[in-house]
Amino acid sequence: RDSKIRPNVRFLLEEVRVPQEALGKVLSKKPQILGYSIENKLRPAVEFLTREMHVPGARLAEVVVRCPALLGFSVSGNLRPTL
Description:
Layout: H1 2-15, H2 20-29, H3 38-52, H4 57-66, H5 75-79
């Protein structure tokens, strides 16, 4: 399990740019993020938010901090059909 935790934390901090001080808030709201696949779950959700929902990269972290559950939704099953 530790093999997923560190890369997922790094993904949140470096690619999503969640501030270090907000990381605890994100993970307390949606601890399942630590177990998600980056390639199959997290990155597709982030790409959906930035490409299809036009969330600017500068605001992505803010959106994720406010609603970390977005990273847990299936793009094809939950996010895209709601557009």
